[in-house]
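INTERNAL AUDIT FORM
Audit reference: QA-55
Scope: verify that the stored structure record matches its stored sequence.
Auditor: D.O.
Record contents follow.
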Amino acid sequence: MICYELPLNERIRMLLRLEDLFDKIDFFSAREASFEHHSVLVALFEILDVTSRSDLKSDLLQELDKQRTMLEGLRSNPDVSEQALDHILQDIRAAFRGLLDIPGRIGGHLRDDEWLMSVKQRMNIPGAACEFDLPAYHYWLSLAPELRRADLKDWITPFTPIRSGINIVLNMLRNSGRNYHFTAVQGVFQQTGSEHQAHLLRLHISSEFACVPEISANKYALNIRFVPWRPDHKADVYEEDVPFELTFCSL
């Protein structure tokens, strides 16, 4: 099965983008090649750009506090495991304290590093990270992998509270989902009404179907059109019926 996620507001869209960037950092920072460590810096710089346009820290603190209050209200529910509830609340409190301890703006430790900012500035120009553009950066890339990894760890670690908060919010959002099974007749599915409003849609479809969903949604209607995955395919819409699972997730 292939899962497609569609955020339905700007805040969730930003959290998903940051989650994807942190996943790339995990993957490439564990490698040894210089090009792979270059990819880590590219992802870090993209995180700076994404977070510079929002008050992410405040949003996460607000959402974590909201979820903590909601979960505390479940203590009297006999269907809720006390042990599981305590574990989740402990994670929320730890993430909350970590966010409060972040001094100043997110990524300030990178912005205060003149060398890193000079590298970032050159990277804004396509292909401008070559050795003749950035000889000092070329020297860093030629260092032993363990030395580069030590630097990367210093640059990545201050983001840990942010990532923890993002993981908690997105996990709770995904786990809140209500699942429904539908069929797109000749590749088209439409639904009207507000009974399925959500912050995030998760669509699961079998990889046997050579098509991808194009989703548009608002509080009045949901429209899904499955299109052939090959861009040179002449048909605008996948011509077969497509069964799929749709999950409506809300915080």
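Auditor finding: record pair retrieved intact. The chain has nine helices and seven strands.
Action required: none
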